[in-house]
Specification:
Helix content is 49%, strand content 0%. By secondary structure, it is mainly alpha-helical.
Length: 103
């Protein structure tokens, strides 16, 4: 009888917000803290109402993608969407600089 080896797990040096375990396919908790959940949800819905599909997963895990979406939103003729984009950018900027509570 032939033995089947178990799937090898990825090294523990995986990037935050990425899949950390090949057998369970779990996301690390740091991915969820990149953006305020309620604001991100409202932003995605508002973008979709403007005909732009936004991936929440990519917003949380791909910095370039997230900033591109914020830029698109800021350039649209929707004042509410522009305010949301500014709020999300300020949150992103605070996360990058280590500021705990942005105002």
């Amino acid at each position: 009888m032939r033995q089947v080896s178990k799937p090898q797990q990825m090294e523990s040096t995986a990037l935050p917000g990425r899949i950390t375990d090949a057998s369970t396919r779990r996301w690390s908790p740091s991915a969820a803290t990149a953006w305020p959940v309620e604001l991100l949800d409202a932003f995605c819905l508002r973008m979709s109402s403007q005909g732009m599909c936004v991936s929440r997963a990519l917003m949380q895990n791909d910095r370039r993608y997230g900033l591109e979406q914020l830029s698109h939103a800021h350039n649209m003729a929707d004042d509410t969407l522009r305010v949301m984009a500014v709020q999300l950018f300020r949150h992103f900027e605070a996360q990058q600089s280590g500021i705990v509570n942005p105002h």
